[in-house]
Amino acid sequence: MENLALFILLALLAEILGTVGGFGSSLFFVPIAGYFLDFHSVLGITALFHVSSNISKIAFFRKGFDKELLIFIGIPAVIFVITGAFISRFINPKILETALAIFLIGTSLVFLFFKNLSIKPTTTNSILGGTFSGLIAGLLGTGGAIRGMTLAAYNLKMEVFIATSAIIDLAIDSSRSIVYSYNGYVHKHDLYLIPILLLVSIAGTFIGKKILERISETQFKSIVLILILITGIVTLSKVLFN
Q: What is the span of the domain harbouring residue 68?
């Protein structure tokens, strides 16, 4: 890969921002990786990257997790990420990339303008949140924002929130990695990136944890949302004018 050092630096930044912002690194990593790889390859690499990323998060934030939410959000998320991953092979990559850009822009604007937006902590909403986050993760490579909003309804402690989200995400990414491999999205010539991204995920999670210990999560989340908005606009511009 050309500009490998830049790719690694941006992946590290994505992991740090994803850890601190609570939205998951894929919100940044998927559009960033799109400048270096084709979109289907990005989906495959992102899934494998996230497996190691979530193992790192579970290791660093292992003080507890919510078993009920693992069931009500995790099970539908895994079912529908498999569904979305299979469907993705039948949709033009440019359409998927455009949908990703619109999703990033829409997500950031909603959270920026409706800062008190929340959903009721009900079993139905948990299942719906898991369903939509899984489906979008399978199609576009990232569904952490929807899962984050669903988990936020339960006012979990930071460690429990991150650990619960990471366990669910690990199940999602493990499942879609198998489907993406079947779809032909995981290429042998890209596999050298996996150990590199493993180290990036550990370093990024560690740095993100240290940042969370020093600054307000709310303040930093606003910065993260602005960066997501910019990322979405740049991604959309790339699709439209490339």
A: 4-241
pLDDT digit string (tens) for the chain, length 242 residues: 678 999 999 999 988 887 777 667 777 888 888 888 888 898 988 888 877 777 777 777 666 778 888 899 999 999 999 999 999 999 988 898 888 889 888 888 887 888 777 678 899 999 998 999 899 889 988 877 788 778 877 877 777 877 888 888 888 888 998 999 999 998 888 888 888 888 988 898 889 888 877 776 666 667 777 877 888 888 888 888 86
Q: Using alpha carbons only, what angle is made at residue 12 by residues 131 and 103, rounded to the nearest 5 degrees?
A: 35
- Of 161, 126, 166, 164, nearest in space to 146 by CA: 126
**Nearest-angstrom CA–CA distance, 16 and 209:** 8
d(CA 11, CA 29): 6
Whether the CB-CB separation of 229 and 108 falls below 8 Å is answered with yes
Q: What is the number of structural domains in the chain?
A: 1
Pairwise CA distance, residues 222 & 90, whole Å: 36
Q: In the block, which residue shows the tokens 């990559």?
A: 93
- Amino acid found at 194: I
* Residue 135 φ/ψ, nearest 5 degrees: -60, -45
Rg (CA), the chain: 16
Task: Decide: helix, strand or coil at residue 156.
Answer: coil
Residue pair 137/172 in contact by the 8 Å Cβ criterion: yes
pTM to 2 decimal places: 0.79
- State both tokens at 182: 């079947």
Using the 8-state DSSP alphabet, how is residue 188 labeled?
Answer: G
Distance CA 101, CA 232 (A): 5
